[in-house]
Design brief:
The chain contains 6 helices and 10 strands. It is α+β, with helices and mostly antiparallel strands. The chain has an 8-stranded mixed beta sheet with strand order 4-3-5-6-10-7-8-9. A two-stranded antiparallel sheet has the order 1-2.
Length: about 200
């Protein structure tokens, strides 16, 4: 699969239009269109597109390890992110909830914008278009504003947490994104947004 095809597939899997990807990445819609059609093969915008798509450089182009257009890149700063369980995730919106992550193991993620971050290991196939089983999602607890087609970790009144895509026209409004037929979740009572899923991490 070419770089152009991967960018197109990742964009569609995340439910983004070219205009929305342009807004997320800071790359012009015209340039994104050219890249997806294979007309423009510049690589200098790939890091910005990768961040907006929640992908690594290597997922888009395996040759982009540490060199882009002949210029060696400084490694991006990494920060520890607590890796918590889905049970613990459901407790984050409770009062007093979980405020101390010191006892949780950590994973390292680079180039994260400001926020309060947690990591969750994906269980099951309900979101495998974006996050295969056993991958890790990075979640911003400070970003709870609902935007169509973006993905969120949410919990219902029982404290059960789940990771789904927001679709305001669907019922329920949080839906799976899977290559296999998957029923939407059944929520008990009000649904609370824990945070927005920003990135998927996957070891090959």
């Amino acid at each position: 699969m070419t770089v152009a095809q991967k960018i197109t597939e990742f964009r569609k899997a995340k439910g983004l239009s070219q205009k929305e990807l342009a807004e997320e990445s800071g790359v012009s819609q015209q340039l994104i269109s050219q890249i997806e059609r294979g007309i423009n093969r510049t690589t200098k915008h790939i890091p910005a597109l990768a961040r907006a798509l929640g992908r690594t450089l290597q997922e888009i182009d395996p040759t982009l390890t540490d060199v882009i257009e002949g210029k060696r890149l400084a490694p991006p700063p990494s920060e520890p992110v607590p890796l918590i369980s889905w049970v613990s995730a459901g407790q984050l919106t409770d009062q007093p909830g979980i405020s101390d992550f010191a006892d949780f193991p950590t994973v390292y993620a680079s180039d994260l914008p400001p926020g309060r971050w947690i990591a969750l290991r994906v269980d099951g196939t309900s979101m495998n278009k974006l996050s295969p089983p056993e991958s890790i999602v990075i979640v911003n607890l400070d970003d709870t504003r609902l935007v169509p087609n973006r993905c969120y970790v949410v919990a219902d009144e029982t404290g059960a947490a789940t990771y789904k895509a927001y679709d305001p026209k669907a019922e329920p409004q949080f839906q799976p994104r899977s290559y296999v037929p998957t029923d939407p979740p059944v929520f008990v009572g009000a649904v609370r947004v824990i945070g927005r899923v920003y990135r998927t991490m996957l070891d090959m």
